[in-house]
Amino acid sequence: xxxxxxxxxxxxxxxxxxxxxxxxxxxxxxxxxxxxxxxxxxxxxxxxxxxxxxxxxxxxxxxxxxxxxxxxxxxxxxxxxxxxxxxxxxxxxxxxxxxxxxxxxxxxxxxxxxxxxxxxxxxxxxxxxxxxxxxxxxxxxxxxxxxxxxxxxxxxxxxxxxxxxxxxxxxxxx
Length: 174
Prior knowledge:
With 174 residues, the chain is an alpha+beta fold. Helices cover 16% and strands 34% of the residues.
């Protein structure tokens, strides 16, 4: 009986340790809306890696989950386009970083709006949805503070036939 009790206690302790380790390193999110199509669709479940940005800074092309700005209620998912201190501009259907156009094969359609030059504040990121013309993102006047980033999108786990690792994509200047 003593061995059973010891094994039971060890199992419970291990389960609690694993639970808290998972809570610290990953988190599940549901995609809401069409702003990230064609990369992500409404209702998909995405696992975000919360540990990655404790080890290094976010990079251009990363798809992130972050706390919403401007009294929005749901956490958001967008792609990092501009890094702190960079100049961003959108014109003629092209996004420019430091006056160089980005090559972005992942977008649904080129943006049909313009955005005048802005220098991104320190410790903030300029984000856009892949569905450029149907996305509330940084072109509407806000950036994402570093401390509001929850994690990097890592896995799509729902629906089951769509399971996949979210690919890393590093957009390059043309």
